[in-house]
Every structure is written in C-alpha cells, then in structure tokens.
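Course assignment 3, question 2. Fill in each field.
Student: A.L.
Task: Predict the tertiary structure for the chain below.
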Amino acid sequence: MAGKERSGTALGLENTMVFAGAFLTPLVIPGILAATSWSVVMLLVGAVPAVLSAVVMPREGR
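Answer field:
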C-alpha cells in the first residue's frame, strides 16, 4: 500500500508499532488482572487489537 518509495518507512513504522505493543502489554496486564479476572484480561488481549486494526487500517476501494 505504501509503494516502493515508502516501503522502508512503512516497515519501520510497522516494527515500531509491534515493539510498542509487545512492550506495553506486559505492563498493563497486572493492573487489569488486579482489578478484574483472567477472563477479562484474555478478552481485552483479543478485543483491543481487533478494534484498533478496524479503526486504523484503510478500507478497500477508498
């Protein structure tokens, strides 16, 4: 989607986002677990990335 002139920028941004998610998730889980249960933690671990991808990713044909 970025084209060959911006492929390096796109890969760098993608790797930065993956690192941020991998860094923040273990920091956030203990707080959520202290306030709720493992079921809620697992629901959020699945739901948050799904919602973020639906919001951030462009739609086909736009």
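Instructor remarks: The mean pLDDT is 90. Residues 1 and 58 are 10 Å apart (CA to CA).
Grade: pending
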